[in-house]
Design goal:
alpha+beta, Alpha-Beta Plaits, DNA polymerase, domain 1, Dna Ligase, domain 1, five-stranded mixed beta sheet, four-stranded antiparallel beta sheet, 15 helices, 12 strands, disordered C terminus
């Protein structure tokens, strides 16, 4: 370990945050391992009608192809596009090696996905040297160990470091010092602010805030009147004021699983089987973290296109809060199915199950239950015998994989694309590898 832990609460004048982001990670791994793909437009993802681009090589990006784009649209932009199915086990293995390097530079590493992380370098200059030299050294060590490109951004706050790493791509480094923050941020589009998506960005533009500088110079009372509490928060970010720490162990506030069907589905049997699959996966993640959920959420996306663009298929949600929190997949599934019965009236292309209102399992009531189930879905609890069964299934899952034991009524929930996001409670992609031979 090269640097000591930093003191929490340091203000931006004394903080140093590094954001490291692998360049087109999945596609770069494929091009490294398959020489015939080098220099060619490569996409990792499914080529089917519901496929989505998980990663695009920089050769593909020259045609306007980017991650999260529907595969059909990507193929229209580039007729010579090469689709690769992808290998999450291989990507997770590379991620493990990369994060081991990150942790030699700082004990405070906050992973955002398999291929990007924040590192807190506050107070490490005496031990490691100037931040820019540290960033270049990190890039060099990752390149030597993996033969993969990585971009680095350095700034006094997390948001600035993240935007800077984007500006450094591909395979570069950008450092923004404290006295350079406003000059760096002001000309950028307001949508560059961390957490501002297309809908929020359009709303900001509607009020005349096109750049981050527009927000930074805005009257606080006007912003509050227009945007409520969020207006004040976003103004602070626009001014480079953000005291959020690098958090190696962030608490989950919700958990969810979802998939996109190859064809629009209205068959209730298939939909309920898919709900059960997602519910069991979510419950397994709850138990791995020692959490219970108070609220069950059903999400679906209509098969009917309502407007142009990737967001043209509207998303809908329904939720129900339980009288007692749960970590049992059968309970989550039963509640989600009841929401489905009340809500769904036309075919869907996407279906998901989530939970929120998470609480520590340590607070679970120890009383014995007299009944195995209850008629009211809001008051279902998990009997001790069922909890023991869940624990046994979890041990099998941890040893042999999440699909080793399945209910006969579960469906196949295929995702439209690979996901590099860490899912809290999933099998740790950075944990020890298991040999099943």
């Amino acid at each position: 370990m090269r640097s000591p832990p930093t003191a929490a609460g340091a203000d931006a004048r004394h903080r140093c945050v590094l954001h490291a982001d692998m360049d087109a990670f999945y596609a770069s791994v494929e091009q490294r391992d398959r020489p015939e793909l080098r220099g060619r437009p490569v996409v990792v993802g499914g080529p089917g009608p519901r496929g989505v681009v998980a990663a695009a090589s920089y050769e593909a990006r020259e045609f306007g192809v980017y991650s999260a784009m529907p595969s059909v649209e990507a193929k229209r932009l580039c007729r010579d596009l090469i689709f690769v199915a992808g290998d999450m086990k291989r990507y997770a293995s590379e991620s493990r090696r990369i994060f081991e390097i990150f942790r030699t530079f700082s004990p405070l590493v906050e992973g955002l996905s398999l291929d990007e992380a924040f590192l807190d370098l506050t107070g490490s200059e005496r031990l490691l040297g100037p931040a820019r030299e540290v960033g270049e050294r990190l890039r060099r060590e990752v390149r030597e160990a993996t033969e993969l490109p990585i971009s680095v951004g350095i700034g006094p706050i997390k948001m600035v470091a993240k935007i800077a790493s984007g500006a450094a791509k591909p395979d570069g480094l950008v450092e923004v010092r404290v006295d350079e923050v406003r000059a760096f941020l002001d000309p950028l589009e307001a949508r560059k602010i961390w957490g501002v998506g297309p809908v929020a960005g359009a709303r900001l533009e509607g009020f005349g805030y096109r750049t981050i500088g527009d927000l930074a110079r805005a009257d606080p009372e006007t912003l509050r009147a227009q945007l409520g509490d969020w207006g004040e928060s976003i103004r602070h970010l626009a001014r480079g004021e953000d005291l959020r720490e690098v958090e190696p162990h962030r608490e989950a506030v919700s958990l969810s699983e979802e998939n996109t069907f190859e064809r629009d589905v209205s068959d209730r049997v298939l939909l309920e089987a898919t709900i059960l699959t997602h519910a069991e996966a979510v419950a397994r993640r709850l138990r791995r973290q020692g959490l219970l959920a108070r609220t069950v959420v059903l999400k679906w996306r209509l098969g009917r296109r309502m407007k142009k663009g990737a967001r043209g298929y509207p998303a809908r949600t329904r939720q129900l809060t339980l009288a007692e929190p749960t970590d049992d997949g059968e309970v989550v599934s039963r509640v989600a199915r009841s929401l489905l019965a009340d809500a769904l009236v036309e075919p869907v292309r996407l279906l998901g199950v989530g939970v929120s209102g998470l609480v520590d399992d340590a607070g679970r009531a120890s009383q014995l239950l007299l009944f195995e189930a209850a008629e009211d879905t809001k008051s279902i609890q998990t009997p001790p015998r069922k909890r023991k069964l869940n624990e046994a299934l979890d041990r099998l899952s941890d040893r042999f994989g999440d699909d080793i034991v399945r209910r006969a009524s579960q469906g196949e929930a295929r995702h439209a694309t690979l996901s590099g996001q860490w899912k809290k409670g999933s099998r740790d992609p950075h944990g020890p590898e298991v040999d099943f031979d």
